[in-house]
Design brief:
By secondary structure, this protein is mainly alpha-helical. Helix content is 60%, strand content 2%. It has 15 helices and two strands. Strands 1-2 form a two-stranded antiparallel ribbon. The structure holds the ligand CC(C)=CCC/C(C)=C/CC/C(C)=C/CC/C(C)=C/[C@@H]1[C@@H](COP(=O)(O)OP(=O)(O)O)[C@]1(C)CC/C=C(\C)CC/C=C(\C)CCC=C(C)C. Keywords: Carotenoid biosynthesis, Isoprene biosynthesis, Transferase. GO terms for molecular function: 15-cis-phytoene synthase activity; geranylgeranyl diphosphate synthase activity; squalene synthase [NAD(P)H] activity. It is an enzyme of class 2 (transferase).
Length: 400
């Protein structure tokens, strides 16, 4: 495919992204109608015993003992689960066996076809492994995931892309207005049109999208995190939201007995785990941009100052600090693993694949003797390649 460049007319100053070139619900969710059982993620401490909520996983303890950030996020999780549960009830009332209908009408000139094709190309270009995983999903689902991916990528590029220095809060306000328009069925461009179509077909709520934009706002003004609670909120904004956006599309296995809330909770945990891993991998790179995405109080507990982070020396204190951070990221991966098997069977492979690959980055940081200042932790091609069949085997196992 040939490389072309697509400028966004609405945001010419923001960035250009390079591209190589109804029915009611589309997912069938069968839920156990029982009170929500959500884990709370006690964010302050690091020892396993100090995480009363985290390790209870899918049968956790609700609001009790939650930090302010957790409560904020917990409310969004409940709202997302309610949206999905409402759709299930509607479907049951209609007594329909709802089957996904092709989101692409048969008209060969249809712009929607083209819109999804572009989303597909962006996804293939920027996230090859993940793109391969999506090919296993049903056509409707993969198109929807591509559309969500593209919106997330564009949002992230606003603060991380080449035009990031020119981004102002008002540009983000305009981006949010555009989001509202998408949800009202008034897309601004082709890529927006794909998302507008997606959100009209799947029970997806706007809140995680708004929250991701809030995360970008946060990134514009904030370069330090006092404690893990602050960092947790940031991770939710920029990555936990992705999990919440994805579950309504991926669907929950009809044979699953887990509550909708617990599956959303696992998805949230996977986003947090991925973002924490990203942060730990990129400490040196971020420091060179004057940023430290590490809890300041925990650095202090280990006798590490800001200037130590900027000087980038791997000391025993640093190794000890990093061990704890890696342990926390792994806990979030562990929670998320409990939810993957509950997803619809066609959706599990890309999730297992991305989970396995991201998790291995933590191993690679350890293998680099915790030098995340000058050595980039990465998963080699062969390891990546081998992870795919392993993920596949896990994906075909029935829900626990
Ligand atoms: C199947 C699957 C993995 C679906 C998610 C697809 C999707 C919509 C991805 C959007 C990713 C994106 C562009 C997010 C923007 C913000 C951002 C950059 C977040 C970081 C991702 C990695 O980014 P980057 O490309 O910069 O990384 P590299 O430097 O190239 O390594 C994040 C770290 C967050 C990504 C978060 C997720 C993919 C959430 C995953 C959770 C689910 C899919 C839910 C699964 C469900 C259960 C029940 C566990």
């Amino acid at each position: 495919m040939q490389a072309t460049s697509l400028k966004w007319s609405a945001f010419p100053e923001v960035f250009a992204i390079s591209i190589r070139q109804k029915k009611a619900a589309t997912s069938r969710f069968v839920r156990q109608q029982q009170p929500s059982r959500i884990c709370c993620q006690a964010t302050g401490a690091l020892a396993q015993d100090d995480y009363p909520g985290v390790l209870t996983g899918l049968s956790g303890t609700g609001r009790l003992g939650m930090s302010p950030s957790e409560q904020r996020v917990f409310d969004v999780v409940l709202k997302q689960a309610a949206v999905v549960n409402r759709r299930i009830q509607e479907n049951q009332r209609l007594n329909e066996d709802v089957k996904p209908e092709s989101v692409v009408p048969s008209d060969p000139l249809d712009l929607l076809n083209e819109a999804y094709l572009r989303c597909c190309e962006v996804c293939e270009e920027y996230a090859k492994t993940f793109y391969l995983g999506t090919l296993l999903m049903t056509p409707d689902r993969r198109k929807a995931i591509w559309a969500i991916y593209v919106w997330c990528r564009r949002t992230d590029e606003l603060v991380d892309g080449p035009n990031a220095p020119h981004i102002t809060p008002s540009a983000l306000d305009r981006w949010e207005q555009r989001l509202e328009d998408i949800f009202e069925g008034k897309p601004y461009d082709m890529l927006d049109a794909a998302l507008a179509d997606t959100v009209s077909k799947f029970p997806i709520d706007i809140q995680p999208f708004r929250d991701m934009i809030d995360g970008m706002r946060m990134d514009l003004v904030k370069a330090r995190y006092e404690n893990f609670d602050e960092l947790y909120l940031y991770c939710y904004y920029v990555a936990g939201t992705v999990g919440l956006m994805s579950v309504p599309v991926m669907g929950i296995a009809p044979v699953s007995n887990a509550s909708t809330e617990s599956v959303f909770n696992a998805a949230l945990a996977l986003g947090i785990a991925n973002q924490l891993t990203n942060i730990l991998r990129d400490v040196g790179e971020d420091a060179r941009r004057g940023r430290i995405y590490l809890p300041r109080d925990e650095l202090a507990q280990f006798g590490i100052s800001e200037s130590d982070v900027f000087s980038g020396r791997v000391t025993d204190k640093w190794r000890a600090f990093m061990k704890n951070q890696i342990k926390r990221a792994r806990m979030f991966f562990d929670i998320s693993e409990q939810g993957v098997g509950e997803l619809d069977k066609d959706s599990r492979w890309p999730v297992w694949a991305s989970l396995t690959l991201y998790r291995q980055i933590l191993d690679s940081i350890e293998a680099n003797d915790y030098n995340n200042f000058t050595k980039r932790a990465y998963v080699g091609k062969w390891k990546k390649f081998l992870s795919l069949p392993v993920a596949y085997v896990r994906a075909i196992a029935p829900p626990p």
